[in-house]
Structures are given as structure tokens and as C-alpha cells.
Amino acid sequence: MEQAKKILDDNNVLSILPLSQRLQIEATHAILDGEGGYMLRAFNLVADMLDDIVPFEDEESQLRRKATLERLDVLWKDGADTPFLSHLNELSIHILALIPLSQDERKKHLDKAISSKPGLNNPWRRSHWTPLHLAAQAGNQLVVEILLAHGANKNAKDLHGRTPSSYLNCAEDKSLLALLQPNATGGGRPKCESPEVQSSRASDDIKLAMI
After folding, report:
1. Using an 8 Å Cβ cutoff, are 99 and 80 in contact?
2. Domain assignment of residue 26, given as a range
3. pTM
4. Which residue ranges does the record annotate as region Disordered (predicted)?
């Protein structure tokens, strides 16, 4: 699509197309044109859907993230990886903490992103999740260890006042809980709550976020 637009421009034929086609092409170009080209812009637009105000706990939010990551994986394998890694920004670490990658690839790309961009503790715009929140939600110990080694803040709070450890399962994530135990000055909910309490708290958080 990007190449087709360039060919039309280079040959001065865009203006002779029917108005409806011309408007459609121009609208697409306006949305997807920018640093990194159409592929990176499309990738970033899909990635923005990961920034959700809903606490990452119920099945619906997990399925929504799974579907978004599957779309990102297709774009990544279709060529978005090259412009993404060439145009790292302050939110690239968030994406690298989540998208499907081999552990070796993830470590290599994370190390590069962390060393080149100051986004280690940056909160996402809507959810206020940091990369460490996302790594905890994904249960990815390698990413948690990498982020902590570079100084990630275990006490960072998201939109719902939760620290990264708040998203762990007490029975299943003991090693991650040990790594992410907030410092004495940190906040968030207690390490262990029953599923009933978690469900009630998530419902309350959603209502507050929508006010």
C-alpha cells in the first residue's frame, strides 16, 4: 500500500483517479504515514490497544490481550520488527515485554531498548502500567529479572493503585512474588487475596476508572 501510494505520486496519476478512491488513499496515508512507514504505524496502532483501563484479571481482558498480541505477532513477522527496532521510543520496552518472542530474542531486544531509551519506569497513558507491571501480568520471570537488574521500580502504581506484584497468583507465582515484593514504602494490595476478593476489587476498580 505504501509503495502503491509512492508510485501514484511519482507518476502524477493520483489526481486522475475517481474522487472516492483518491480520498480513501489519502485518508489511509494520513493515518499510516510517519516515522518507520506504514508497517510500523500499523503495528503501533494495534499495540496501543494493549493499554487498557480494565485490570488485567478477568477472562475477557486476558482474551482481549491474547487477540491483540496475535495480531502484533503477524505484523512483527511480516516485517514490522525491522522499523520497530530501528525507531525505539520510550514505550518500546512495554511492547517487548509482551509480544511473542523467543527468550534469547527478547533479552537481546530488551537490553538494546533499555540501554538506548529512558522508558524503564514510564507508565502507559491510560492504564499507567510500567513494563514491570506487564511482565508480572505475563508471568515472565526472565523479563522481570532483566527489568529489575536495570532498576525497575517495584513500587510503581498503576491506574488502580496496584504494584506489579499485585497481579501475581499467590499459589503459582511464588518465585516472582519473592522478586517483586514491594519495598516498605510501596503500596498495592496485599500479596494474597482470595479469588472472591480479587473479583470484587477488580469490579470496584473498573467503576472508579469510568467515573
Report:
1. no
2. 1-33
3. 0.74
4. 182-211
Count CB neighbours of 71 within 10 A.
Answer: 14
How far apart, in whole angstroms, are the C-alpha atoms of residue 50 and residue 23? 30
Cα dist from 50 to 93, 94, 200, 210, whole Å: 13, 10, 23, 18
Upper half-sphere CA count for residue 7 (Cβ side, 13 Å):
4
pLDDT (tens digit per residue) in 136-176: 999 999 999 999 999 999 999 999 999 999 999 877 788 99
Confidence at residue 188, expressed as pLDDT on a 0 to 100 scale? 47
Kind and range of the H or E element at 105? helix 103-116
Within this chain, do residues 103 and 75 fall inside the same structural domain, yes or no? yes
Grid cell 531486544 — which residue?
109
Pair (22, 109) in one structural domain? no
The answer to whether the CB of 53 falls within 8 A of the CB of 197 is no
- Report which DSSP code applies to 181: P
49 in the same domain as 14: no
Beta carbons within 10 angstroms of residue 106's beta carbon: 19
Q: Under a CB-based contact definition with an 8 Å cutoff, are residues 164 and 136 in contact? A: yes
Residue 203 exposure: Cα atoms within 13 Å on the Cβ side: 6
80 and 15 in one domain? no
Question: From CA 37, how far away is CA 2, in angstroms rounded?
Answer: 8
DSSP state, 12? Answer: T
DSSP-derived secondary structure for 38-55: HHHHHHHHHHGGG--SS-
Nearest-angstrom CA–CA distance, 133 and 121: 10
